[in-house]
Amino acid sequence: MFSIQVPSPLQRFYPDWPNAERYQLYVKRDDLIHPVISGNKWRKLAAPILQFAQHRPSRVASFGGGYSNHIHALAYCCWQLQIPLTVFIRGDYTGNETPMLKDIVTWQAEIVYLNKVDYQRRTETEFINQLSAQYDIDVVIPEGGSQQQCFAGMQSLADEFNRPIDALILPVASGGTLAGLSVAKHSTIDQLHGIAMLKGADYVDKLVADLIDKRKHSDYTIWHDFHHGGYAKVTDELAHFCQRHSAQLNLPLEPVYSGKALHAMQQLVSRGQFATGATLVFLHTGGLQGAR
Ligand SMILES: Cc1ncc(COP(=O)(O)O)c(C=O)c1O
């Protein structure tokens, strides 16, 4: 249906970080899975999209910000499958559309701007029912595509590791990627280290915990001190880090997810967080369109 390139490559990389020589460092290039449905987007959307292809919904809907990678990937998938899509966007970009919004207009998505107060109600059943009735929506995918249905895609990601990994390091925002890997994790991955991209430890911890049975899957760590001031906040240090590492490592990075998480990995490596000799893998979750 789509030209999806899996398994994604696992590439060795050699950064000039303090202590880097103590570890075997790899990057899992999920950003190369597809030019639009890249990174964790394909992993999260694979199961719902394959289901839509078989049992076509009359209209799909989802929620996201004006730069959302999830909305971008979902709109592309729905357009390819000719399934009507409505997206509820946080804030009003009328007359000031982002490149993401311009793309999804060409992919025939219906855009509804919600003010911040209404957007905060995006997980309330009553609000979702009201929107579903108003816009004739059949299926609602939560913000970021984070729902238990995305776990199958995370299992397929975990299955691609055919050598022991001591730690997998990845960005966390709406929680589905870490939650899914925590549930799917099998014998090859020892530790999962999620790097929170947003401020608010309780909020991020709860997003992940709410998706899983915490009693069975508490074996992950979420780091809360690498968000650079909050979601999509970019310090000069982070911007410089992204530029330098994109060039040095020949690895596309943007500051909202991949660059921020790799910067956190640098900090953890430099301070000797992991046992000497460990194999550490950075999960590149894509999202490069958001940086246009
Ligand atoms: C490119 C990218 N990486 C990582 C994440 C964070 O993943 P999650 O929302 O599943 O925690 C997102 C947001 O969904 C994203 O767009």
From TrEMBL:
<dbReference type="InterPro" id="IPR036052">
    <property type="entry name" value="TrpB-like_PALP_sf"/>
</dbReference>
<protein>
    <submittedName>
        <fullName>Pyridoxal-phosphate dependent enzyme</fullName>
    </submittedName>
</protein>
<dbReference type="InterPro" id="IPR027278">
    <property type="entry name" value="ACCD_DCysDesulf"/>
</dbReference>
<dbReference type="InterPro" id="IPR001926">
    <property type="entry name" value="TrpB-like_PALP"/>
</dbReference>
<keyword id="KW-0663">Pyridoxal phosphate</keyword>
<dbReference type="Pfam" id="PF00291">
    <property type="entry name" value="PALP"/>
</dbReference>
<comment type="similarity">
    <text>Belongs to the ACC deaminase/D-cysteine desulfhydrase family.</text>
</comment>
<feature type="domain" description="Tryptophan synthase beta chain-like PALP">
    <location>
        <begin position="23"/>
        <end position="286"/>
    </location>
</feature>
